[in-house]
Amino acid sequence: MITIDKDKPIPKLSGRGAPRKYPFDELAVGESFFVPGKKSTDLGGSIGGARHRLPGRKFRTRTVTENGVDGVRVWRVQ
Questions:
Q1: β-strand partners of 71
Q2: DSSP string, the chain
Q3: In whole angstroms, what is the distance from residue 40 CA to residue 54 CA?
């Protein structure tokens, strides 16, 4: 049997409309951000989504070590 509940909060979105994990929207040309513990290939889907969502913007990534921490730096280049 299915029960009807009252006062159950709606969970936050985990897909479209959810807060963005990475700040692609906020980057100006020449700015970058560092993502610790990731490789460039790990961000491929996120970058592809950002390019689709933000036409005309281009991004570059490099796997780097900063302050002894391996990760990826993402630059907005256009």
A1: 36, 64
A2: -PPP-SSPPPPPPSSTTSPPSS-GGGPPTT-EEEEET--GGGGHHHHHHHHHHSTT--EEEEEEEETTEEEEEEEE--
A3: 20
The answer for residues whose C-beta is within 8 angstroms of residue 70's C-beta and 6 or more apart is: 36, 37, 63, 64
The DSSP call for residue 51 is: H
Dihedral through CA 61, CA 67, CA 70, CA 71, nearest 10?
Answer: -30
Ordered per-residue pLDDT tens for the chain, 78 residues: 887 788 888 877 666 666 678 999 999 999 999 999 999 999 999 999 999 989 999 999 999 999 999 999 999 999
Q: Quick one: pLDDT at residue 14?
A: 62
pTM, to two decimals: 0.76
CB atoms within 10 A of CB 60: 13
